[in-house]
Design brief:
About 40% of the residues lie in helices and about 15% in strands. It is α/β, with parallel strands linked by helices. The protein folds into two domains: about 160 residues, Alpha-Beta Complex (Aspartate Aminotransferase, domain 1); about 260 residues, Type I PLP-dependent aspartate aminotransferase-like (Major domain) (Aspartate Aminotransferase, domain 2). The strands form three sheets. Strands 2, 3, 4, 5, 8, 9, 10 and 11 form an eight-stranded mixed β-sheet that branches. A six-stranded mixed β-sheet has the order 6-7-12-13-16-15. The longest helix is centred in the C-terminal third of the chain and has 28 residues. Bound molecules: pyridoxal-5'-phosphate.
């Protein structure tokens, strides 16, 4: 049977961004089983023993409590499981001096779900046929944003400015405020902070400036805090979560060890929250309550924030340090390579300026030497103009072991050196 697809059907049945390249990666890994591939593509967090133990303990507590039947045997409210909502609100109000009530929060099945409903509730065509855009103020950003709008043309990303750091071979992206336009045609603004894939953390001032640009038009600004404090606390540079009238602070518990339970949290203005909640009710009724019940326990006891700051963050920060020194040691000094400052998340982002081949071709050469990063082009969803930079970057996962990172960076350095040398020899 081959049923005809609608426009939405066609759009949603195609894999976008990194998911398309992941198919090739998974096939490569399967075909090369036992060949010792160094997989630097993974987005799945490492299962850290302290985190696994935390979720076991919380599960044991739930199992032995009288709440168990209530949690798993009954439907609940679309907004979320009340004890979880209370635990998050109490924690955020105390931690950040806020005055949030349960009208300001929605629990979703994973945070990607927030971006899907937001992208289609506030982006796309209005009743009078006007296109409301989803603005990504700094490209590259999370590849998943490419798959969320039902109306593809609603997604618009902006090129960043590139600041070379005083440390050689380091750089940082900033939003290019001379280009960024937020106006009556904007439906929502969205960015990740810390950023997947780059590890960038937009400064507090940059976030405030973006929110201020959106305020006059009543545009909500969704800050994807999947890697931010207090959980999973995967910021290596100090950062303050920013709250404000039009900011929707979005949390994920995936990198805090619960990716399988699908838990996202949106915090912000009650009218935005209400719209998202109704959309969610229509789509899936509500998020699973088991994950919410164990997470409520981990948040109430303080254990989740504690393990995030003292186990999860140092684990990945140490991995970044290993990668950084391996690159400094192995990469040729004369090649214009630049590592994005490691300010957070679980990835490193490498830019090879004037790379003589495409990122995809480099990925293929690296596969030949058993190293599998992700070519960078998948991380520029919504960027409408052609920009050579999009084909000069690689995302390297920090989920590998120290030895894998060291060996991987040495092999990468050799391939990169040969690539530039080969191009120089052909040109002369
Ligand atoms: C920046 C960013 N946002 C959102 C997500 C999706 O997270 P969730 O599992 O909460 O849907 C990810 C997952 O990797 C991510 O990296």
């Amino acid at each position: 049977m081959n049923p005809a697809l609608t426009r939405f059907g066609d759009r949603m049945t195609h894999l976008t961004g990194v998911r398309a390249i992941m198919k090739d990666i998974n096939e490569t890994l399967r075909s090369g089983q036992g060949q010792g591939f160094i997989n630097l593509s993974a987005g799945n967090p490492v299962i850290l023993p302290e985190i696994e133990q935390l979720w076991r303990d919380c599960t044991a507590d739930l199992l032995s409590s009288s709440d168990y039947g209530e949690v798993v045997c009954r439907y609940g409210s679309s907004q979320g499981y009340q004890p979880f909502i209370e635990a998050v609100l109490e924690d955020f109000n105390r931690r950040y001096g806020l005055n949030l009530s349960d009208r300001n929060i929605l629990i979703t099945p994973g945070s990607q779900f927030i971006y899907f409903i937001a992208a289609n509730a506030f982006g796309g065509y209005t009743h009078d046929g006007k296109l409301k855009q989803i603005i990504l103020p700094l490209s590259p950003d999370y590849t998943g944003y490419g798959g969320v709008p039902l109306i593809q043309e609603s997604l618009k990303a902006y090129k960043p400015t590139i600041n070379l750091n005083s440390t050689p071979h380091r750089f940082k992206y900033h939003p290019d405020f001379s280009q960024l336009e937020i106006n009556e045609a904007t439906g929502l603004v969205l960015f990740s902070r810390p950023c997947n894939p780059t590890g960038n953390v937009l400064t507090d001032e940059e976030v405030q400036k973006i929110a201020a640009l959106a305020t006059p038009y009543g545009v909500p600004v969704f800050v994807d805090s999947a890697y931010a404090s207090p959980y999973p606390a995967l910021n290596f540079a100090p950062m303050t979560p920013i709250f404000g009238e039009n900011i929707i602070h979005c949390i994920s518990l995936s990198k805090a060890g619960l990716p399988g339970e699908r838990l996202g949290i949106a915090i912000g203005d009650e009218r935005v929250i209400q719209a998202l909640e109704a959309f969610q009710t229509n789509l899936c009724i509500h998020s699973s309550r088991y994950g919410q019940a164990i997470a409520a326990r981990a948040i109430r006891s303080g254990a989740l924030a504690e393990i995030s700051a003292h186990v999860i963050r140092p684990y990945y920060q140490a991995k970044f340090a290993v990668l950084e020194s391996a690159l400094d040691e192995a990469m040729p000094k004369e090649i214009p390579w630049f590592l994005h400052l490691g300010e957070g998340a679980i990835f490193a982002w490498l830019w090879l300026q004037d790379l003589p081949i495409t990122d995809y071709e480099l990925y293929r050469s690296l596969k030949q030497v058993g190293v599998i990063p992700v070519p960078g082009e998948a991380f520029f969803p919504g960027l409408q103009e052609d920009w050579a930079h999009t084909r000069q970057c690689l995302r390297i996962s920090l989920t590998a072991t120290d030895e894998e990172l060291e060996t991987g960076m040495h092999r990468l350095a050799t391939v990169v050196e040969q690539t530039y040398q080969h191009a120089a020899a052909s040109a002369s």
